[in-house]
Amino acid sequence: MRVSLLQLSVDSTETAGDRRLRAAAKVRERAGDDLVVLPELWTAGAWAYDDWERDAEGLDGPTADVMSAAARAAGVWVHAGSIVERDADGTKYNTALLFDREGSLRGHYRKIHRYGFDTGEAVAMGGGSDIVTVPTEFGGLGLAICYDLRFPELFRGLLDAGAELIVVPAAWPAARLAHLELLVRARAVEEQVFLLACVAAGAHGGVQQAGHSMVVDPWGTVVAEAGDHEETVTADVDMAEVARIRSELPVLRDRVLGIPAPALR
User: Fold this and answer.
1) Does residue 92 carry a catalytic annotation?
2) Is residue 254 in a domain?
3) 132 and which of 18, 57, 109, 242 could share a cystine (Cβ 3.0–4.6 Å)?
4) How many domains does the chain have?
5) Which domain CATH number covers 58?
6) How crowded is residue 223: how many other Cβ atoms within 10 Å of its Cβ?
7) Keywords of this protein's UniProt record, alphabetized (predicted)?
8) Residue 248 catalytic?
9) In a domain, 264, yes or no
10) pLDDT tens-digit series, residues 105-127
């Protein structure tokens, strides 16, 4: 299975519309791949809060249109990162979109853990509530977004829902790059899955992005990693490694569930 992470540079010098066209062209260039992934909120900018209202869209909006067409043209699965989704009731969500090779929307995930500590995403967006995995020809594909990486219980839920591959689009601050690298590898080892983290480059909302998009295998080995500028990272992964590593080191069967919380003293 060949995967490509499109580490787009996101900044205020380019409109969301222009960036959509540029991203779609990059997807079309990946014909022959199996899965292409984009970063979190690459249209509006994850830290450009003032642009979210202007650039919010529906699940059938302009980003879905161009990504669906690009997936169909290239014959690849496309994880279109995430968009600022506006629901029918006006609530905004940070929502990931997954398209199959025919351009059909096969799954979407509303980010459960909202970043901001009473600012930004934490107050401007609603939170999702559903754990989402999508069956594909290369295995169960789990969906998470950026800040979710800090919450292992979500990833254990994705494992229990059948995930063998987890895709995490992100707009991670460069100042916390060490945390990103640690958490991506930890989640891969913990669930014994391939983990694809596609991270934005550039700067928006005054925040320099980390880049360093990564493909990590179920042993925690970094198979491929980008630098801190816009680039495309491509790697061949063998999904049979998931079953092999789970058999060789069968830690998941030793889970003990339902451990009661200790009484407060």
Assistant:
1) no
2) no
3) 109
4) 1
5) 3.60.110.10
6) 16
7) Hydrolase
8) no
9) no
10) 999 999 999 999 998 899 999 99
Residues in the chain: 265
Could you tell me whether strands 105-110 and 92-99 are parallel, antiparallel, or unpaired per DSSP bridges? antiparallel
Give 31-51 pLDDT, tens digit per residue.
999 999 999 999 999 988 888
> Is residue 198 annotated as part of the catalytic site, yes or no?
no
In a domain, 262, yes or no: no
Q: Annotated catalytic residue: which of 57, 85, 111, 181?
A: 111
Specify the residue for token string 């992934």: 37
Helical segments of 125-261, H only: 152-160, 177-191, 240-248
Residue 162 is assigned to a structural domain of this protein: yes
What H or E segment, with its residue span, contains residue 127?
A: none
SS (H, E, C) the chain: CEEEEEECECCCCCCHHHHHHHHHHHHHCCECECEEECCCCCCCCCCCHHHHHHHCECCCCHHHHHHHHHHHHHCCEEEEEEEEEECCCCCEEEEEEEECCCCCEEEEEECCCCCCCCCCHHHHCCCCCCCCEEEECCEEEEECCHHHHHCHHHHHHHHHCCCCEEEEEECCEHHHHHHHHHHHHHHHHHHCCEEEEEECECEECCEEECCCCEEECCCCCEEEECCCCCEEEEEECCCHHHHHHHHHCCHHHHCCCCCCCCCCC
Query: Which range of residues forms the domain containing residue 20?
Result: 2-249
Q: What is the CA radius of gyration of the chain?
A: 18
Relative to beta strand 2-7, strand 35-37 is parallel
Does residue 11 or residue 149 have the better pLDDT? 149
